[in-house]
Amino acid sequence: MASNQRPYLCECGKDQIYPHSMSFNPRGDMLLLVGRPRCSEKLCKSSNSHRLSEGEAMCFRVDSRMLEAASTVFRDRLLSPSSKARRLKLDKKPDGVKRDIHFPDDDPHAMRVILEIIYRRYNPSKNPPMGVQSLFNFTVLTNKYDLVSRLSCWTPWWIAAMERHWKRAVLVSDSSEDMESLAWIYWTLGHKPLYACMVLGIAFVSGQDAAHRLIDGNKELCFTDDGGGVPAPPNLPCEVGCMRIEALRLIRNEIKLTLESHLEDSISLPRWCTQGTGPPPRGSDRSVRQAFVAVFEGEKLWPVPAVSDMAVSAKSLLDLFRLHPELPAFKHFAKNDGDFSCGRYGSFWSRIKHILLNTIQLQISPTSARHLEKQSKISGVADFYSRMGVDINSDRPWSVFRIEVLQSTAFKLR
User: What pLDDT does residue 275 have?
Assistant: First the structure.
């Protein structure tokens, strides 16, 4: 197909190198160029402002009727006179080709997977598993061209492939980038629990800059893209902000409980533990309290500020305790006489991590919940889990631990 063609023209006016070609129908009536071919002029800067890197382009020979039947959005884009699809600058088309269309802003690799699905050639077991960025680009296009309903056969494969990424990201990663991409993927496929989990993950690494904007652990602004227009679920920033406050509140409450109830060092008026009827804190715990205070003072967090005044992320607080495993947690133990005693029980950072994974309830907005429920039915996610006896659209709040059990059970039974 490429041998009969002159190169395309770049925006700078120079010829472009002809992209890799792939035929889905040798007699197809349409050429579909996706992405931006590399310019023959090495110093060309015309594509620097685009999200897709220079040279990312593929040309597909297809049957226009297959695309038009796959989606009304495809049909409108290909046929409408007001379509934003650009016509190619070809002197001579291959025999049988009646139309040539250019989609410069679409990802060519994602479009190839879409065409394989439309032509019923896609087999995920024979292809390398898609990474986060590849699946993100793919779901961007399936959402754009209203093709989510065609994904039901393969959705479980992609959800299983993403498991190692979200497990590795939550409470571990410093960057929110992958989690923002995963949030979009689960938003598109309609996986309510994993979307809520990504809300917590992004909230956990998010701090605030001087302008009260959310920033991740690498000091990069959340929910931004350098000129690429990367989409984000509409309520995600608000949901992340609320979840961040909730995570910080939980951690702050545990800090205050430990300092004021378990380690209070007042000789004139010893405080009894508010959680039980045991003896007042022992004098030997004075050094523990001093260690707590020293850690907070070193991070300029003493006295412990109100949650609304905390610019740090919940992860930075957890890492602070992780680096000081000598800081203990406390627990109340029932004695044989029915009384209670208060004593050290593990490290403080283990307690906080347990609370975040098992106790904190992952909440999302009603608008997001309705959208995710609708998408789960379109993509086949709801049907997949219902066959396992699980309702992923349940109103019952999710925790990270409960989601891990859900995923493990679902894919073990699959």
Answer: 47
